[in-house]
Amino acid sequence: MHSMTGYGKAEKREHGLDVVVEIKSVNNRYLDIFLRLPRELSFMEYELRERLKKKVVRGKISVNVNISEHLSGGDEVYLNEELLENRLTLLEKLRARLADDQQVSLDHLLQFPELFELNLSAFAEDALRELVFPVFDEALETFNRMRNEEGLFLAEDIARRLNRLEKMTNEVRRKGKRNMREEFDRMCNNVYSLVDEGKIDPARLEQEVAVISDKIDITEECVRMASHIQLFRQLMEDRGEVGKKMTFILQEMLREANTMNSKTTDVEISHTVINMKEEIEKMREQAQNLE
């Protein structure tokens, strides 16, 4: 069970280059991948996407691949001459405006690191794959490890709330049976207090009152709630995409709790059902973070 929120980073230094891969994700209903690559690495975008899809099912994923020269770099860096001319022109204009006699020097130009670019075209595609893919896989492994840890934490919290929900469901079911009997007796007594007892057929009265009191019976809702709880527990043992299924079951649980609350006439039951709804809502918030 994985959370949809995660972060992973890996880096490697080789052939005078620093390769850094960052992967991060947030919640999303579907799998949405955004890749940011240097232009020279665009040929491997499809392969990176496919590697990611094998490990991630859902979420909004941002991947940033960056390659730069480190201090001991070599011939892979070249001078952007077009940009150099642009910067020289700007410096000359600035010197003229300030009426400064100082000439533009190499020290001034070295303040513009963008003048020096990596010449990745000097590498074969297979060499670049061998350079980037191991770093990407390492970042992906770290990313998934964090998602798994977060998923376990969420699962533990959901399991605790599910146990409380089951306990409250059993409590409501016991009180519901008692409440139905009490409501039946109450309605009978009310009728007898308003009408001459000799003019009432006791059997017919009990039949009519039983029909009315049956409308406050919440046994069926409790049975369905227990069934949903059992199904939810089974789902928590599954691997893969469970977040959507959990959300659907929790919606059904909330529906049963609302029906209980609308049918019962017992204040204690009503208060317990409100607590049940609160636990269901909190579980739904957690489930929406799961893949």
Describe this structure in words.
- There is one protein chain.
- The chain has 8 helices and 6 strands, in the order βββαββααβααααα.
- The chain is an alpha+beta fold.
- The chain folds into 3 domains: 95 residues, Ribosomal Protein S5, domain 2, CATH 3.30.230; 39 residues, no CATH class; 138 residues, no CATH class.
- The strands form 2 sheets. A 4-stranded mixed β-sheet has the order 1-2-4-3. It has a two-stranded antiparallel sheet with strand order 5-6.
- The longest helix is centred in the middle third of the chain and has 70 residues.
- The mean pLDDT is 82.
- β-sheet strand percentage: 5-15%
The average pLDDT is: 82
Sheet with the most strands, sense and barrel status: 4 strands, mixed
Overall strand count: 6
Side-by-side strand order of the widest sheet: 1-2-4-3
| Poorly predicted parts | none
What distance separates the N and C termini? 7 Å
Kindly name the structural category.
alpha+beta
* Radius of gyration from CA coordinates: 34 Å
Order of helices and strands: EEEHEEHHEHHHHH
What is the helix tally? 8
Number of domains: 3
Helix content: 55-70%
Q: What spatial form do the alpha-carbon principal axes imply?
A: elongated
Which helices and strands appear, and what pairs or packs with what?
Layout: E1 6-14, E2 17-26, E3 31-36, H1 45-53, E4 59-69, E5 77-79, H2 81-97, H3 106-109, E6 116-118, H4 125-194, H5 202-214, H6 219-236, H7 243-263, H8 267-287
Parallel strand pairs: 3-4
Antiparallel strand pairs: 1-2, 2-4, 5-6
Helix pairs in contact: 4-5, 4-6, 4-8, 6-7, 7-8
